Amino acid sequence: MTIGFFDSGIGGLTVLHQALKLLPQEDYLFYADTDHVPYGEKTKEEVRTYILQAVEFIARQNIKALVIACNTATSIVIEELRSRYDFPVLGIEPAVKPAVEQSAGEQQRVLVLATRLTLQEKKYHDLVHRIDPGERVDSLPLPGLVQYAEQLEFSEEKVIPYLQKELAHLNLARYSTVVLGCTHFPYFEDSLRKVFPPGVKFISGSRGTARHLKQLLAARGGMNQCTGNIRFYRSGIEVDDSALLSKYNDLFKRLDEMEEAAAHTEQEN
Ligand code: DGL
After folding, report:
1. Which atom of ligand 1 is least distant from the CA of 38?
2. What is the C-alpha separation between 217 and 254, in angstroms, rounded?
3. Does domain 96-204 have CATH number 3.40.50.1860?
4. The pTM is what?
5. 182 is annotated as an active-site residue
6. Tell me: the pLDDT tens digits for 59-86?
7. Which CATH number is correct for 2-92+206-258, 3.40.1260.10, 1.20.1560.10, 3.10.450.60, 3.40.50.1860?
8. Which residue is closest in CA terms to ligand 1's atom 2?
């Protein structure tokens, strides 16, 4: 049996990328709802309908677990999905907890970047309220990054001016930690590092979600010895376009390169 991954678009690949490292012998199905991306700028009701439709399709593909690799979708429907299906459903939420814990005792603040819808949702407000009694967390939506990712536009010439404009009202020296609270955002870690002062830490929930998936499968005795095959779907249609598949592979390479560069930079600091 395969493991389903779901996102509005290619953001979920940043989570699948981590799962492939921890669970290389599983088979995967990756479903991107590209007909309806971006979710973050739509209404909650509209997005809920799209997610339920997509998950109905995924549930028919004989999956043993489903990862909602989208912070926005998690904040809207995770409980509803868990009550509808028998397979385990894992979500991802902005990594506010590790960010606040790691920076405890520091004067500097935490900045959470996510979609507008995630930041509006009660789930997010409850999370921050629970974890941040000292009120050290600020939040900012960056919808342009979702659009850039979907256009496979990662060039610093385009992305850095956008980030500078969106962040202009903030004093970036006040932040020690930035949470990448949308699965599309880790693709831009290189540009973000150039815009924030040196030494700022970037945290995403992808690795934690992959670890959680591994623990869950191990606890259920449900690990496979497969080949790490991935089937890709775009809003219910299987992708058989080799040019597109090779672009997805390039995205994994991009993420690997940025991870190496980040490890290097953190060693230097
Ligand atoms: N990748 C998604 C997230 O983590 C949603 C992006 C969007 O569709 O707006 O929130």
Report:
1. 8
2. 28
3. yes
4. 0.96
5. yes
6. 999 999 999 999 999 999 999 999 999 9
7. 3.40.50.1860
8. 70
